[in-house]
Write a structure and sequence with these properties.
Length: 598
């Protein structure tokens, strides 16, 4: 418990030490602005202290807020009481100044931009609206009322001084303090090479010298001149350099303007109006440079991620056994990995700039278009299998896992695919599919395949897509063959039937072994008369063929068959029952004959 207490006390002491340092800095900034930019007994024309507190609240936990707010309340009260409106007005002025920083920080946290507002154009815009406009406007009304009642200045003039002075101070000072408190300036310096540090110092000297030259004279309107080095700094030195340069411009320009120097003197107005003109100039300059720096920072981060992604992509593609290929929206290959030669037989150089189907090494255009439509519709990767040829003319199977590439508007711009050779797998699948649908003894279709084909034919007949018949054949007295010669000879007889049937049917007909000595025929597009002719041809072929046993014995058999027409409205079971009943009649009528279902 003592250890926990000591840690807690130590953390609390550090928090108060930080708050005291913040309070001292706040008092210094407030006093400086009152002494340098306060005219006619009114509000300071430029106010940096709120920006200091805003930066602290944006970068620290809410647990530290109470200490920071207390320290800045005391500092603001002291500065106002000693150097401005006196102790009576100091309390409400302090509450409004500190409340402005709390409002800005709270709104930025609600927008989830507290830590990252300098990292994007949207963040800079949000910060400018919240900290430099909304918060000063909200606190400016009561603040101007208090100030006007003690200074005797018009309410409108004090309100203008509050909004412009606080807004400009937050706009120019908060980013700098944010970068200092968050340690980003230190990290920027540490991450820079010695040459880059020298360049940074040189550009800051150029910025300071340019500002001194421009604001050290009052004869030429040269306000546009400092923008040139500022923009160059934004490009060369990123956010940290840009913020420092803006602060240099703000500090030197405000000081020289307050002392009666600078191009704004050409306006011929009073010192307060000249400083306000300078404020407007500085606001425009800052709102020009900060978004540029933010956008450049985003682009640099994006380029770094792209470089890292390209390095990973290159490592993966060069070590992968799959071929990695990218295609544009028209299907033209833009990149092919080195493994393309191993996978397809084509070198990357042969593929790049061509459409795969032009070389016969990829899916046809219809398959490619269908895959592209599926990716664009669902927005998910898709997998296609296709048959293609190698440079030697060999036909092989490939599998492509494809993901779409989309632009910022969600429009499909191309594909990236991982392609592998799946010929061995497809061959195995074909063998398994053939085994699952084939009788192993005769090589004919089995019962499962027969039923599937028959269901399809019945559906075709239902929608009037052609005629057809079925026939069921049974070998007469097959049990006697098995009993007299054994099952091995019986198997030879079954093979004899299969060979004879295949010779006798038409090319579009199907022959299947349904089980035992029973066989089935599906006669595509045949009328009853045509079916009877084909079945008679099969019956006669069986009667003529002789099965020779290993012992040299010749075995002859006959068959009986029942024929049924496929008619609309019949189910498979009904059709099979009708053909089976006709077969039974053929056997009952003396065998070696055909019977037609009623």
């Amino acid at each position: 418990m003592q250890g926990v207490a000591s840690v807690s006390i130590s953390g609390g002491q550090r928090g108060w030490a930080r708050a005291v340092m913040l309070g001292i800095a706040y008092f210094t900034a407030a006093t400086a602005m009152i002494q340098l930019t306060r005219f006619d007994g009114g509000l300071a024309s430029l106010w940096l202290a709120t920006g200091l507190l805003t930066a602290e609240l944006l970068t620290t936990d809410r647990q530290q807020w109470r200490k920071s707010v207390i320290a800045c309340l005391i500092a603001n009260f002291a500065a106002t009481a000693l150097f401005s409106f006196g102790p009576v007005a100091a309390a409400p002025i302090a509450l409004l100044n500190v409340g402005e920083a709390m409002l800005a920080a709270t709104l930025m946290r609600r927008l989830r931009r507290a830590q990252s507002y300098l990292n994007s154009l949207e963040g800079v815009i949000a910060f400018a609206l919240v900290a430099a406009l909304i918060a000063p406007l909200v606190t400016g009304l009561p603040g101007a009322a208090v100030a006007a009642s003690f200074s005797g200045m018009p309410f409108a003039a004090e309100f203008r001084s509050w909004v412009l002075g606080h807004g400009l101070g937050s706009l120019t000072f908060t980013p700098l303090v944010t970068l200092i408190i968050s340690g980003r300036i230190v990290r920027w310096l540490r991450g820079s090479t010695p040459a880059a540090r020298i360049e940074s110092v040189a550009w800051m000297m150029v910025m300071a010298a340019t500002t001194l030259i421009v604001f050290g004279q009052s004869t030429a309107p040269l306000l546009f001149v400092p923008i040139l080095p500022l923009i160059i700094i934004a490009f060369r030195l990123e956010q940290a350099g840009t913020v420092i340069a803006i602060f240099i411009l703000a500090g030197i320009g405000a000081l020289m303007t307050a002392r009666g120097y600078g191009p704004v003197q050409l306006m011929g107005a009073d010192p307060a109006d000249q400083l306000r003109l300078f404020q407007f100039y500085l606001a425009i300059t800052a709102l020009t440079a900060l978004p540029v720096a933010a956008e450049l920072s985003q682009r640099r981060a994006l380029f770094r991620r792209i470089e890292e992604s390209e390095a990973r992509f290159k490592l993966i593609t060069e070590s992968s056994t799959d071929m990695i290929v990218t295609l544009d929206r028209n299907g033209t290959v833009r990149y092919a990995s080195p493994s393309a030669t191993e996978v397809t037989g084509f070198t990357p150089e042969q593929l790049i700039g061509r459409r795969p189907h032009e070389l016969l090494c990829g899916p046809d255009q219809a398959t490619l278009d269908a895959a592209g439509a599926a990716i664009q519709l669902a927005g998910r990767p898709t997998t296609v299998e296709y048959s293609a040829r190698t440079p030697t003319g060999e036909s092989r199977w490939f599998e492509a896992h494809t993901r779409g590439l989309f632009d910022e508007h969600g429009k499909l711009t191309g594909w990236v695919s991982a392609v592998r050779d799946v010929s061995a797998r497809k061959a195995l699948e074909l063998r398994l599919a053939h085994a699952a649908s084939t009788d192993p003894l005769t090589g004919l279709a089995n019962r499962r395949r027969f039923d599937s084909l028959l269901e399809r034919k019945i559906e075709d007949r239902r929608v009037n897509r052609g005629y057809g018949c079925i026939a069921l054949f049974d070998i007469d007295f097959f049990k006697r063959v098995n009993d007299a010669h054994g099952h091995a000879v019986g198997d030879l007889v079954l093979e004899t039937f299969a060979a004879a049937a295949l010779r006798s049917v038409r090319g579009e007909d199907h022959v299947a072994r349904l089980g035992g000595e029973e066989f089935g025929l599906i006669l595509e597009g045949a009328s009853v008369e045509q079916a009877m002719v084909v079945c008679e041809r099969v019956r006669h072929a069986i009667a003529r063929d002789v099965t020779r046993t290993p012992d040299g014995i010749e075995v002859s058999v006959t068959v009986s068959a029942g024929v049924a027409e496929i008619t609309p409205g019949q189910s498979r079971l009904q059709l099979m029952r009708a053909a089976d009943e006709a077969l039974y009649r053929a056997k009952a009528g003396g065998r070696d004959r055909l019977a037609l279902a009623a």
